[in-house]
Amino acid sequence: MAAAAVSEAWPELELAERERRRELLLTGPGLEQRVRAAGGRLPPRLFTLPLLHYLEVSGCGSLREPGPGLAQGLPQLHSLVLRRNALGPGLSPELGPLPALRVLDLSGNALEALPPGQGLGPAEPPGLPQLQSLNLSGNRLRELPADLARCAPRLQTLNLTGNRLDAFPAALFRPGALPLLSELAAADNCLRELSPEIAHLASLKTLDLSNNQLSEIPAELADCPKLKDINFRGNRLRDKRLEKMVSGCQTRSILEYLRAGGRGGGRGRGKAEGPDREEARRKRRERRKRECGEPEEAWVDEASRLLLRVLHVAENPAPLTVTVSPGVGDVRPFIVGAVVRGMDLQPGNALKRFLSSQTKLHEDLCEKRTAATIATHDLRAIRGPLLYAARPPQDLRIVPLGRREAKAKDLVRQLQLEAEEHRKQKRRQNVSGLHRYLHLLDGKEHYPCLVDANGDVISFPPITNSEKTKIKKTTCDLFLEVTSAASLQICKDIMDALILKMAEINKYTLENKDEGSLSDHEVDAIPGQVSDPRATTGAEQAGSAPLVVEQVRVVDEEGHLKVVYPSKTDLDLAAAHVTVLR
Fold first, then answer.
1. Residues annotated as region Disordered (predicted)?
2. Which pLDDT belongs to residue 388?
């Protein structure tokens, strides 16, 4: 009788168990009452789904703690999203160990502290050994766990915005503690001091400490070898010249000022001590390279390099812009776009390699589209500007790849029926193709979509693109989009990987044009793709010219900039065989 009551209260769990699902989303108006009835915790039955890779429970004001059994019951979890709930003041019991977790989003809760036993997981051995992205923004944290770096040693992105922190733990900046950390955001806190030891973050690219209570910026910050974007606005610095610089100057100028000896005290010692100070810093940088195990960049012959040229918005007479509607905030809030010109997809198997690389990125970096979704379009078939919005399923119409025009509601229903038929025929639970991603829409009252200036829906993430903008062998100029419900940085990282792969494919194509064309059978085997052997591409005419990556601006409805890609911190590729011309 009790089991029947649980089944009735949590039909999503029964469905996930029956279909052996790897992703589960719990949200919507009925969730809060059910969680309250479960004592402010997640139901224990949830932790009997060991196949789960992605779990999201969001927007539930009655969820105060995850509940015991999560770590033991979900050992394969890759992404855990528990945002906009009421978790706090700690996590009891602690979350880890979760050996496979890569993305953890605890933003928008009521967390005040994460002490041992009520935090993220143990430090020895590391409770979150594979964690790459941690979002703790919008909580009430007054301090970070001292052992955070030992608990999550492979952390790449750390978002602490909107808490009550007055200092970072010293262990966070010890040599080699977080060798992969590239983005640190701690805006809107109460930070009073930034340790010079931050220079030990050898991979740091982006640092946002705006709107804190800092009075000085340590000169050692300039020793971060990869730092390209800093934000210290809203701090009352003692060095008034530096305070003025952080409000209007580029990162490079600020770092040069610090490197020359400019300090928060503004005593102007840089000119007198410049050469000695610079030599000391050079030696420190070399020592930190050894301490952090940073590899020496291999020498690569210029002829074998991949070239990418970035065209900035200011240089582009007709830049493409994406306007974001507020409605996507609760559905799939993050989007990054880019235009790539000069691809040659006509010779040999270039088109097939390009589509296969997308599939591989969706499986790996995108974690089967749970972390992010890629969409690629023929730029000639798009009329800008574009609108990224959320619409009710019955109001969203699209011509999906290889199908007739349909409402999103009908398309999803048709795909569900096809998936069920597939299971019956194959006598197994796993499904393939678009059917694998239907669960990502569970509980959504609105679906995200990208619309061009003609009013045509060209993308319905994470399900499909439009037949109108499909990539053909004759396509040479492309619009790329990456959307995510997890984070903006994930969008950027995946876009970096996609563009790098495109450069590799294009170079291979140009060097192996005698490989032979795809047969009609091979082309037909790629859904939604049509070849035209008579057409010539712009890339053919350009010879071995680099791919051109045009910046795309994403703005809100008032025209305020949300993100531009690629910015000066994007496409900062560690690969020695790539040269980016800016």
1. 260-295, 518-543
2. 96
576 pLDDT exceeds 80? Answer: no
The better pLDDT of the pair 188, 117 is held by 188
- The residue with tokens 């795809």 is 518
Per-residue pLDDT, 272: 38
Tokens representing residue 286 in the block: 């070399």
Q: What is the pLDDT of residue 539?
A: 39
Half-sphere exposure of 89 (CA within 13 A, CB side): 7
Among 268, 188, 264, CA closest to 231: 188
Cis before 169 (ω within 30): no
CB 197 within 8 A of CB 218: no
Q: What are the Cα distances from residue 386, in Å, to 319, 407, 462?
A: 11, 20, 18
Alpha-carbon distance of 561 to 29, in angstroms, equals 32
| 244 Cβ contact list (under 8 Å, min separation 6) | none
Q: How far apart are CA 379 and CA 365, in angstroms?
A: 25
| pLDDT given for residue 195 in this prediction | 93
Structural element, H or E, at residue 157: strand 157-159
Are the C-beta atoms of residues 143 and 167 closer than 8 Å to each other? yes
- The answer to whether 362 and 368 have CB atoms below 8 angstroms apart is yes
Q: Which of 487, 426, 579 is CA-nearest to residue 159? A: 487
Distance CA 419, CA 263 (A): 63
> What pLDDT is recorded for position 157?
93
Query: Residues 175, 157: contact at Cβ < 8 Å?
Result: no
Convert the pLDDT of each residue in 20-66 to its tens digit: 888 888 877 678 888 988 889 989 888 888 888 888 888 888 999 88
Of residues 266 and 188, more confidently modeled:
188
pLDDT of residue 433: 54
172: CB partners within 8 A, 6+ apart: 144, 148, 149, 178
Whether the pLDDT of residue 373 is over 90: the answer is yes
Alpha carbons 59 and 484: distance in angstroms, whole number: 17
Give the type of residue at 36. R
Assigned token pair, 92: 């009891």
- pLDDT value at position 276? 58
Rg of the Cα trace of the chain? 25
Please state the rounded mean pLDDT for residues 484-492.
88
Burial of 400 (0-12, 13-18, 19+ CB in 10 A): buried
Three-state SS for 351-373 is: HHHHHHHHHHHHHCCCCCCCCCE
Query: Quick check: 291 pLDDT over 70?
Result: no
Give the position of tokens 């966070």: 172
Q: Which residue has the tokens 């791919």?
A: 547
d(CA 508, CA 547): 13
